[in-house]
Design a protein that fits this description.
Length: 122
């Protein structure tokens, strides 16, 4: 949200483009985009302040050391857990943990970060 401006969003909308963005939640989105995903890197009370009307998706990076699902303070149409592939956590443990949490909480889904070292899982 540091570089995206209302003029840019408006220009693409006027040209007929649909726009989807993903943000860490640190700053509010001061204009309309077609699909808004927040992958929080800030405290829940900041998310609640920045997105009082909710978002399309909340996508939490998650690892096996976090025993339960998040308790979001922001409404979303879709909730995702994304197993962390950071080189410090055991990849398989993170995947299995997220699967277990999602099976126990069906409103949550798995979202893998394919741009990371997913190939290490194979």
């Amino acid at each position: 949200m540091l570089q995206l401006t209302g003029d840019i969003v408006h220009g693409f909308s006027a040209a007929g483009y649909k726009q989807a963005i993903e943000t860490n939640g640190m700053h509010p989105v001061p204009f309309h985009v077609d699909h808004l995903t927040v992958s929080p890197k800030v405290a829940e009370h900041i998310l609640a302040r920045n997105f009082p009307n909710g978002v399309d998706e909340l996508r939490y990076p998650w690892h096996s050391g976090k025993p339960s699902i998040p308790e979001p303070k922001v409404k979303a149409s879709h909730y995702f857990l994304s197993p962390i592939f950071d080189g410090n956590s055991p990849i398989q443990a993170n995947i299995q943990h997220c699967i277990k949490l999602c099976l126990a909480n069906p409103e949550w889904k798995i979202s893998t970060q394919l741009h990371k070292a997913t190939w290490n899982v194979l």
